[in-house]
Amino acid sequence: MPAKELNYKFVYADACNMCEGTDFKVLGKRLNTSQGLRPRRKTGITTTVCKCKTCGLIFANPMPIPHNWDDHYGVPPEEYWHDYYFTEDPKLFATEIAVYQRLRGPAAGKTALDVGAGIGKVMRSLMRVGFDTWGVEPSAPFRQRAIDKMDIAPERMLLRTAEELEFAPGSFDLITLGVVLEHLVDPSAVLARMLPLLKPEGLLHIEVPSSKWTVARIFDTWFRLAGTDYTSHLSPMHTPYHLYEFDVRSFEKNALRLGYRIAHHEFFVCDTFLPKVLNPILKPWMAANNTGMQLSIWLQPAGTAKAGGSR
What is the pLDDT along the chain (311 residues), one digit of tens a residue? Predict the structure, then answer.
């Protein structure tokens, strides 16, 4: 799809989105297609991937911004996910619900908002434990699957972006942005928009790719040994369209700007995408060193007493 892939404008950043730092390290180039182990043999366009030396945020610079976001996300969910994804999973989001209940007590009677709700699977999990649940999803095909396959009431699933939310301040006990911030051009601005929607004791849950993922470092080492200047970080111009990877420091520094606290954080190892024979070594290593794929972090308004911890 060459024409579609070229339908971008490229915007340079002179400051880090999360901490406003201006000292960057160049990690390498990223193709507009899956690179494999030998990206030098492939053709395409690239953008540069940088890392903020102050907070560890990894980002595309220049940032490729599609002229039409439907080029990325306005596709049938069946093209984005495997078939098994379209069945309800009672265990989905169970870990996060358990963290919420440990920090803030039972869910029954409390309000929740799922931003970037997809086909509504997390909404179903939230409703199952008693949350009065709303969802926001910018993709019309994804929203329709939530209504058709997950039996989400249409009035509960709003068709709009995170930047277009119009809820009253103090509406929610819990807001979750699972695998959302890494897709947004201005994640700090969206955090600033979410925080006032929380009640005083509310929590903002975020899950994002970790900039310290061991597997990315392994691939990047391979690229260097092969004599190339490519990087495995991010995928700004091909699925899953990740524009950012985050460090805990990214949120610590951003908290000073926006006025929130970190209530809890943890790392999830997830898949390695390497030969399975390596998993018995790599997975325990990543778990012990907090270098798994995903960072799960919980934010609370600045006036809320500290709670929870991290691992």
Answer: 343 455 899 999 999 999 999 999 999 999 999 998 999 999 999 999 999 999 999 999 999 998 877 677 666 665 655 655 667 788 899 999 999 999 999 999 999 999 999 999 999 999 999 999 999 999 888 899 899 989 999 999 999 988 888 899 999 999 999 999 999 999 999 999 999 999 999 999 999 999 999 999 999 999 999 999 999 999 999 988 999 999 999 999 999 999 999 999 999 999 999 999 999 999 999 999 999 999 999 999 987 654 544 44
Q: Are 162 and 293 found together in one domain?
A: yes
**Whether 91 and 59 share a structural domain:** no
Query: Is 77 in the same domain as 67?
Result: no
- Residue 263's domain comprises 73-209+250-301
Q: Which of 164, 163, 120 is nearest to 141 (CA)?
A: 120
Note whether 85 and 144 are same-domain residues: yes
168 falls within a domain: yes
**DSSP of 37-102:** T-GGG--S-EEEEEEETTT--EEESSEEEESSTHHHH-S-HHHHS-GGGGS--TTTTHHHHHHHHH
Angstrom distances, CA of residue 47 to CA of 32, 225, 301: 8, 21, 36
62 cis-preceded (ω within 30 degrees of 0): yes
Phi-psi region of 147 (alpha: psi -120 to 50; beta: other; left: phi over 0): alpha
